Amino acid sequence: MENLIFLSIIAAVVVFDAILIIYVYKLKKRFDLFFQGGKTKNLEEVLSEQIKKTRTQEEGIKGILGKIKELERISQKSFQKIGVTRFNPFENVGGDQSFIIALLDKQNDGVVISSLYARDGNRVYAKPIKNGESQYPLSNEEKEVIKKACSAQ
């Protein structure tokens, strides 16, 4: 009976040792992964390096965010909406060689350029556009091209 209790205790110790060996093995794998390949440093050095890297990355991110904001500001004033139409303003000239182009930014500010082709020459007109409208009289074709550009995304 005493031998049975003694063998049970030894079996329990062996099982406990096996569990500990497995746990230590897994812990060693984590440790090796954490320190990446054998160059053992103390935890303070590792954390100090990570804090330095994090600060450097934060500064880089701040710089990138500043550049993004600047690009967003610039893009608000760049041409984002374009409308083009070709037409024939005169009956005796064929080929739809005349055109109108509207170049607008996000706020529908920009310019409308009209090119009227005739047999005796070509005339080009430019009119400033503010909020999709001009202080100068616009032809129906110019209004249509501005409308087309304003609806473009």
Question: What are its keywords?
Answer:
153 residues; 3 helices; 2 domains; 4 strands; 52% helix; rod-shaped; four-stranded antiparallel sheet
Overall description:
- With 153 residues, the protein is of the alpha+beta class.
- The protein folds into 2 domains: 74 residues; 71 residues, no CATH class.
- A hairpin with a 2-residue loop joins strand 3 and strand 4.
- It is rod-shaped.
- The chain is built from 3 helices and 4 strands; from the N terminus they run ααββββα.
- Strands 1-2-3-4 form a 4-stranded antiparallel sheet, with helices on one face.
In short:
The chain is α+β, with helices and mostly antiparallel strands and 153 residues long.
Largest sheet: 4 strands, antiparallel
End-to-end Cα distance: 89 Å
The figure for the number of domains is: 2
> Average pLDDT across residues?
87
Weakly predicted, low-confidence segments: none
Order of helical and strand elements: HHEEEEH
Count of individual beta strands: 4
Strand order of the largest sheet: 1-2-3-4
Strand content: 15-25%
Quaternary assembly: single chain
Tell me the helix content.
40-55%
Shape: rod-shaped
Estimated radius of gyration: 38 Å
Quickly count the helices. 3
Provide the structure class: alpha+beta
